[in-house]
Amino acid sequence: MAREDGTAPGRLARTFGLAWLIAFTGAATPGPLLALVIGQVLAQGFAAVLLILLGHALLEVVFIAGFALGLSRVLQRQRVRGGLALVGGLALAWMGLSILIHAREASLAASVSQALAWPWLIAAGAGVSLSNPYFTGWWATVGTGQMATFGLQRPLDYAAFWVGHEMGDTVWYVFVAALLALGRHLLSDPIYQGLLMACGAVICLLALVFLVLGIRCLRPPPPVLLAGSGGQAPA
Fold this sequence. Notes:
Blueprint: H1 9-27, H2 32-44, H3 47-68, H4 71-75, H5 78-103, H6 108-111, H7 118-130, H8 133-150, H9 155-182, H10 189-218
């Protein structure tokens, strides 16, 4: 009989599987991390994606530990969410516009000169994720909701959740990186430029969405009229 505690194999397998599935669907959404993976895999090969994902995974360890200690309550405050959305939206706008501006001049030959050293690849994997308000918003809502639903209590529960989540990200981005690495000889400069422009356009759209959401969160609430005032301001 399986033990009725947080280390029961069935419970860990369920946590792992559901975390994997939800992470995979989230990872498939285009964004700045995908743009980073495309650029660096084409610049220096398949191994780049592994270092980018390492940085991303290390950041998520910090997030999961923080949520276990109560960080979710801070991120769910309206003004905090609004501030993060505005700052992140501006960062995304800068990234997206930069990609769009330089996309027409990009070439596969020149991309080699943009290869990052391995420490910077790890840092970029974490930094690009952290600058994306979709990332922080996802963890403050969907991520914390998952952890609450799964009833995570012990370190092994959180470890199963983290490993499952990272495997969901890894499967998608490794698949994309493998396609790019194996099919690099089939890519032309126009196709490469088209990929960059598509990523840049999506990032700009996300930036606009988060800027609007940030403004709405930070906008002061309308004044509440007292009953019987008839909507009239006091004389």
